[in-house]
Amino acid sequence: MSKVCGYCKGKGCKRCKRTGYEIEKLLKLRVWHIPQVPAREDADIFRVDVKTVDEAALILNTLWSYDNFQFERKIKPDFSNASGLEYWDREPVRSWQEYYDEFGNDICTIIREKEESKK
Which of 102, 103, 68 is nearest to 83 (CA)? Predict the structure, then answer.
């Protein structure tokens, strides 16, 4: 699965130095999940490394299903969660950045569109 720079959306920029680079092969990916917003500190954010966007989607769906399971059974009386997918951006700052596909969609939109296409 080929992904492009989250900044230029594949048009070419100094960050990616070319269009259409494969983000899943070049950069690390990780899922992040905050089970109760707001997170008081960075330690309250669950993170797990993933190899592909499809693997991230599976993990996120599992986390969301588990949160909903707890809510429906009144284990959590109420909750507001937040989740996403990040990639390690090597240049210029070396930091985790939110992942967007070549169409500018974040992981939640990617998952929603994939589920809608199955209907």
Answer: 68
Domain count for the chain: 1
Residues 28-65 have pLDDT tens digits of 899 999 988 888 888 889 999 999 999 999 999 999 99
In this prediction the pTM is 0.74
Structural domain for 78, as ranges? 23-118
Flag whether 15 is in a domain: no
CB within 8 A of 21, min separation 6: which ones?
Answer: 3, 4, 5
What are the phi and psi torsion angles at 2 (to 5°)? -95, 130
Q: Could you identify the residue written with the tokens 């996120």? A: 60
3-22 tens-digit pLDDT: 555 556 555 555 554 333 44
d(CA 106, CA 63): 17
CA dihedral sign, ordered 99, 64, 33, 29: negative
Say which CATH number the domain at 71 has. 3.30.2260
